[in-house]
Design a protein that fits this description.
The complex is a heterodimer of chains A (about 325) and B (about 350). Chain A is an alpha/beta fold and about 325 residues long. Chain A is built from 11 helices and 12 strands. In chain A, the strands form 2 sheets. Chain A has a 6-stranded parallel sheet, sandwiched between helices. In chain A, strands 7-6-8-9-10-12 form a 6-stranded mixed sheet, with helices on both faces. In chain B, a hairpin with a 2-residue loop joins strand 3 (about 190-195) and strand 4. In chain B, helix 1 runs antiparallel to helix 13. Classes of the chains: A alpha/beta (about 325), B mainly alpha (about 350).
Chain lengths: ~325, ~350
C-alpha cells in the first residue's frame, strides 16, 4: 500500500512536470501558428480526415488524394476514426487541428456535431474543404466537394423502372435516417418512383451497415411479397446483404437489384448477374479534386465554393466500365 | 474465476522485508499504468512539441475524454462488484434523446428545428433532470434484474443495451434531435470557467465525488465487499441486493449525465454513435487496475485508463501514423494490462 502511494505521488509529480514544460515550451515559440513543429518554410501540410477507416470508398478517396498530393508537392496526412460516427470523429478532428495543417479536407460524419470542432480548426488559420458530406452552416468552408445524392437516387429509380418494365413491387434497404447522403438517395429515389404509376413502393427498411440484417430483411420481405420485383440498396453493405438474401431465396436475377456505390463485391455481383445496375461515385476523383483545391488554397488562388463530382450508371455487361469505377484501395 | 480462494484486499499484510525484484513487481503492478501515461505524454511532447503539447491540444484532449470518463466511473463501480454494464452507450443515447426532446418541447419550437434554440437555463435544468432520471431508470432496471433474478449481468445489460437504443429510435423515428438550447452549447459544450472547459470541470467533480464515495463511505466499502466475495459480504451484514441495485442505478444515472454532456458538446443527439462506449469504458476501467472479478479498483486508475486511448489516438494522428495502428496498439495495451492484473492477483493469493 505504502509503495503504491509513493509511486502515485512520483507519477503525479512527473505529470505536473510534463505539464509545466509543455506550457513553457509553447510560450517560447509564440510564432508557432502557421508553421508546424520541426517543420520550416511554407506550410504545405494537408490533412485528410476520412469518414471512417477500412471502408473501400474512403480508402479509394485516400489513394486518389495521396497520388495527387505527391504530384503537387503537398505533405498529406490521412486520418480516420474507426466508426462512421460524430463522437468517434470529433477527437480525430481535434488532433488534426492541433497538428496545424495549412488545409484540412474533412468528410464530416454529422452536419451539426462537426460544426464546432471545424470552427476551431478554421480559427487556427487552416483552410477547410469538406468532401462527400456537408456541414449545417457551410459559411466556414472554403470549398465543398459533393456528389448529388438526390440525383443518384433518381437515377436508381429510372434504372429500376426500365428493368421491371414499370410494373411491380419495389423495396429500399438503407441506413437508419440521420446520414445525409443516404437520406438524400432515398429522397431522390422516392420522388422519381412516385412518377411511375405501375410501381408499388413497399417503403424503406433500415440496417446499419449490417449485411446479415439486410439479408434477413430481403428474405422476410420475399415471404410477405413473393412477387417482389426490385430492390434498391443505398450502399455497398446493403448490396452485399441483398445479394445474399436473394441467393438464399433463390431469386437472384429474378428480383432486380440496383445498388449505390461500386465496391469490389458489388462489381463482382454485377459481373455474375446478381446486380443489374450500379450507381457509381468516383471517390478516387474526389480525393484528387480535394488535393487540387488544397493546392489552390495554399497558393492563394480563388476556388469554387461548390464542386460537384459526377455519378455514372454501370449496367450489367459493362464490365470494363465497372472495372474503371470500382472502389479500389490500390495504393 | 477462482473467487473462493481470494483473500480480501484489506487483510493482506504488507511483507516486512521484500526482495528488490518483488518491490519492482509491486511498483509495476501499482503505478505502471500511470507510468505508461507519463511516458506517452513525454514521447508525444518530445516528438511534436509545437503541436502535441499546446494548451489547445491538451485541453481538447481532456474534453474528448470528459464524457467517456463520466460513463467509465459508473462502469468502474459496476465492475468492482464483479458485474458489467454493456448498456451505458445506449442509455447515454436514450437519455440525450429524452432530454433534448423535452428541452425542445419546452422551448416551444417544432421537432423539425435545425440548429440552436433560445431555451432558458430553467429549461436546461429540467433537461438535465430528465437526462439523469432517464439514465437512472435504465440503471434501476439493470440493477433489479441483476440483483433479483439469476440472469447474469452480461445478459441483462446486453438486453437493455438493445432496448434503450431501440426506444431512443422509436421516440425519434431514428432522426437525431437537432434543436439544442444555444445557452447549453455555448456555456457548457464549448464554454470555459477560469480557462478550463466546463465539460472537464463536470468530469473532475464526478471523479472526485466518486473517489470520496469509494474510499470514505460505507457505499464504497460495501461495493468492494460485494465484488470481493458476495456470500462473505452478505454474512457480514452487507445488504448485497440493495448495493447491487444502487451501483447499477449509479452507472445508469452517470450515463444519463453523460448524455446531457454529449448534447451540449455535439449540439445534436448522436443516435448513430456511442456504439463502442461500453467496450471503451470497460477497457478503461480494466486498464486502470480494476479487476474484472470484482473487489479491487480505484477511481484514479479509471481516470488514467480513460486518458490512455484518447492520448494514443491524438498522438498517433499528430504523428501521422495510419489509423489502423491505433486500434492495434490499444488492443495490445489492454491485453498487457490484464496480464499484469493477473500477475498481481497471483502474487496476492500466494502471500
Amino acid at each position: 500500500m505504502k509503495h503504491r502511494s509513493i509511486i502515485v505521488l512520483v507519477g503525479i509529480a512527473a505529470l505536473s512536470l510534463t505539464a509545466c514544460t509543455t506550457t513553457a515550451g509553447d510560450g517560447g515559440s509564440p510564432t508557432g501558428g502557421a508553421t508546424g513543429g520541426g517543420r520550416s518554410g511554407d506550410n504545405t501540410n494537408v490533412a485528410l480526415v476520412l469518414g471512417t477507416s477500412g471502408s473501400p470508398f474512403y480508402e479509394a478517396m485516400a489513394c486518389g488524394a495521396k497520388a495527387e498530393a505527391e504530384k503537387l508537392g503537398l505533405t498529406l496526412e490521412v486520418s480516420a476514426a474507426a466508426q462512421f460516427a460524430a463522437d468517434a470523429q470529433v477527437p480525430v478532428v481535434n488532433a488534426v487541428t492541433a497538428s496545424k495543417p495549412a488545409v484540412a479536407a474533412v468528410v464530416p460524419t454529422d452536419a451539426q456535431a462537426l460544426q464546432a470542432p471545424l470552427e476551431s480548426l478554421v480559427q487556427t488559420g487552416a483552410k477547410l474543404i469538406t468532401v462527400d458530406q456537408t456541414l449545417a452552416d457551410p459559411s466556414i468552408v472554403d470549398s465543398a466537394i459533393v456528389t448529388d445524392n438526390v440525383e443518384g437516387g433518381k437515377m436508381a429509380a429510372q434504372e429500376i423502372n426500365t428493368l421491371i418494365g414499370g410494373q411491380g413491387k419495389v423495396l429500399v434497404v438503407t441506413q437508419p435516417p440521420g446520414s445525409t447522403a443516404q437520406d438524400q438517395r432515398v429522397e431522390g429515389f422516392e420522388t422519381e418512383l412516385a412518377t411511375y404509376p405501375g410501381i408499388e413502393y413497399l417503403g424503406p427498411q433500415y440496417a446499419s451497415n449490417d449485411p446479415q440484417k439486410v439479408s434477413q430483411i430481403i428474405t422476410a420481405t420475399l415471404s410477405a411479397h413473393p412477387d417482389l420485383a426490385a430492390v434498391f440498396a443505398t450502399n455497398d453493405q446493403g448490396a452485399i446483404g441483398a445479394i445474399t438474401g436473394l441467393q438464399q431465396a433463390n431469386k437472384t436475377g429474378e428480383v432486380k437489384l440496383v445498388a449505390y456505390d461500386a465496391a469490389t463485391a458489388e462489381v463482382d455481383g454485377l459481373k455474375n448477374g446478381a446486380i443489374q445496375a450500379l450507381i457509381a461515385q468516383n471517390p478516387n476523383e474526389e480525393g484528387v479534386v480535394a488535393m487540387q483545391t488544397a493546392k489552390a488554397l495554399i497558393d492563394g488562388e480563388e476556388v469554387e465554393k461548390d464542386i460537384v463530382t459526377d455519378l455514372v450508371v454501370v449496367r450489367a455487361g459493362e464490365n470494363d466500365k465497372a472495372d474503371k469505377y470500382e472502389y479500389k484501395a490500390n495504393c | 474465476m477462482r473467487l473462493t480462494d481470494e483473500s480480501p484486499k484489506a487483510v493482506v499484510p504488507e511483507a516486512a522485508e521484500q526482495s528488490l525484484s518483488e518491490r519492482w513487481r509491486e511498483r509495476l503492478g501499482g503505478g505502471w499504468i500511470l507510468l505508461l501515461l507519463v511516458v506517452l505524454l513525454a514521447v508525444f511532447t518530445i516528438l511534436r512539441p509545437a503541436q502535441f503539447a499546446t494548451p489547445f491540444n491538451l485541453s481538447t484532449l481532456a474534453t474528448d475524454a470528459a464524457i467517456l470518463l463520466v460513463v467509465a466511473i459508473g462502469q468502474a463501480f459496476v465492475i468492482m462488484t464483479a458485474g458489467i454494464d454493456l448498456s451505458v452507450g445506449s442509455v447515454l443515447v436514450f437519455s440525450s434523446v429524452t432530454s433534448a426532446l423535452t428541452m425542445l418541447a419546452l422551448s416551444g419550437e417544432s421537432t423539425a428545428t435545425y440548429g440552436q434554440t433560445d431555451a432558458s437555463w430553467g429549461v436546461i435544468a429540467i433537461g438535465l433532470v430528465v437526462a439523469v432520471v432517464s439514465g437512472l431508470a435504465w440503471g434501476l432496471i439493470n440493477g433489479l434484474l441483476v440483483s433479483r433474478t439469476r440472469i447474469p449481468a452480461l445478459i441483462v445489460t446486453l438486453g437493455t443495451m438493445g432496448m434503450a437504443l431501440g426506444a431512443a429510435q422509436v421516440i425519434t423515428n431514428g432522426q437525431d434531435v437537432r434543436g439544442i438550447p444555444a445557452l447549453l452549447v455555448t456555456w457548457v459544450g464549448s464554454g470555459q470557467l477560469a480557462g478550463i472547459p466546463v465539460l472537464i470541470l463536470v468530469a473532475v467533480v464526478v471523479a472526485v465525488v466518486a473517489a470520496v464515495a469509494l474510499n470514505k463511505t460505507r457505499f464504497g466499502t460495501w461495493t468492494l465487499a460485494t465484488g470481493s466475495n458476495e456470500e462473505a459480504a452478505r454474512r457480514s451484514g452487507v445488504k448485497v441486493r440493495a448495493q447491487l441495485l444502487k451501483v447499477y442505478a449509479l452507472s445508469g444515472a452517470l450515463a444519463g449525465l453523460a448524455g446531457m454532456m454529449a448534447i451540449a458538446r455535439f449540439s445534436t443527439t448522436t443516435i448513430g454513435g456511442h456504439t463502442q462506449d461500453n467496450l471503451a469504458t470497460i477497457s478503461a476501467v480494466v486498464l486502470g487496475g480494476t479487476s474484472l472479478f470484482g473487489g479491487v479498483g480505484t477511481i484514479l486508475g479509471t481516470v488514467i485508463g480513460v486518458f490512455i486511448p484518447v492520448i494514443l489516438l491524438n498522438g498517433f494522428i499528430i504523428l501521422g501514423i495510419p489509423p489502423f495502428w491505433q486500434t492495434i496498439a490499444m488492443g495490445a495495451v489492454l491485453v498487457v494490462a490484464v496480464y499484469i492484473d493477473q500477475m498481481k492477483r497471483k502474487k496476492k493469493t500466494l502471500s
